[in-house]
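pls read this protein.

:::
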Amino acid sequence: MDEDDAVDVLPGLFVPEASQWLSTSSGRVAGEGYSWMQAVHWVAGSGLYEPRRHRSHGPRSFGATTVHVAQELARLFPCRPGIEYLVRRTGLSERSVEYHLGMLRETGLLAWIVKGTRISGGPAQASEFARMIPTEFDAALGIRTVQRDEAAPAYTRAVSGIADTGRKLMAQLAMKASRKVRKPRSKTASKAPAKASVRGAGQEVVTVDSGEVRCTPMQVGTSAVPSAGATPFPPEGKLARGAGKSSTPKKSKVEAAGRRKLNRVGRRFQLARELTRELGWLRGCSVDRIAWVARGVADAGWTVSEVMGWLHLRGEADRVRRGSGLLAVLLAGAEKVLDTPAKRADAIEQWRGAQEASRRDRIQQVRARTERYDGGWDAPASRAVQRQVDEALTAAFASDPRPAAPDTETLPGVSGVEDLEDDVVARVRQEAWQRLMVGDTSPVIVAVDAMGRATAEQLYGSGLVRRALQLASGARSSLMTYGRR
């Protein structure tokens, strides 16, 4: 509010579908998951986004469940969450996960890099997202950004400062981003208020871990009313600053933030679980065995990204029979070779560069295939349908049963061209038929253009001319191609 009592109200937060791609987004890419979660909590508490304004179904507000889904996305790099993965991690249904991903895109917090596909009969490919910070967040907190490279896209701009009025709110968002939001409990789960609930303005309940404050007077009897009813309590302001006393036991900063420091064994098992999720050939392996195999790199402080970079340098196997054994061979002596953080960072860069090159190659292959067939038709995935298509094409272009040697006795007389011997006509027909079998219709087409169809039929026969004209007309159609796919 300024001196003239004028209030600046931010407009409603909504990003249309055409602007939900990284190339068309007006926001900027978040540097890491922590800063992105600050923007998520700001959107959850601002009340600028109302889903029911844009659809008549789905969630009614951007609340704790959406923040819970965003927490899972903040851990992924690259951000390629599959629907089944989010269903397994959050306990939500598939439709609910799709709703909350759509809400994150509509608020400008997510932008598509690659949109996943679901082909019938084939494996589903997960979408890849970029975690974005909307421009409304920068405007509300007075964050200043600068474009360091003029040739780079606009979404790569970096933060250069923040206004003094936004520092307090940024500190509050930082505390929320460091706290783990759990999945909201159902109404029928338990009626006992074992956990405190914090309700934001215009959003659903966000449940956090907190000790229950109890005050039991020292008295004899079963009355629930304390005998010292007139005893004054210290003001809330002093309690907030820590000046008053409370019966609630103090918690350490690690416990208050919802985190627990892992020991050496805990780090081994954490790395083992992450490796079984990231590497497909480790799926189904025992986490205990993987933790024992990766104990060397885990004790050296390696992250899962550094392990992936090292495995990229060692190479990948086409066929894996025992995943834990292969991992033991590949990780042998890894902590001694990449013994500095700089070497491990270089390995990570090479791994990510190879992933990006592979992704671009897949895009080029899909684009080339689309341009080649010039339309939306794709080959059927069912083998039964493919067999029916092959039989139909074979029946349409099957050759008539002919004797091995041409029948020169029943050849019609040739009129309109020079008089030719029967054996010459038979040889010409045989050569034209052989060239037609490999897709070359030029002898017959040239004869039809030069002498007319009637004369060409006398020379080559009506059946051969008809098949050559059919093949030539099909070659000019975008729905027909030669060779094997």
Notes: Residues 433 and 464 are 7 Å apart (CA to CA).
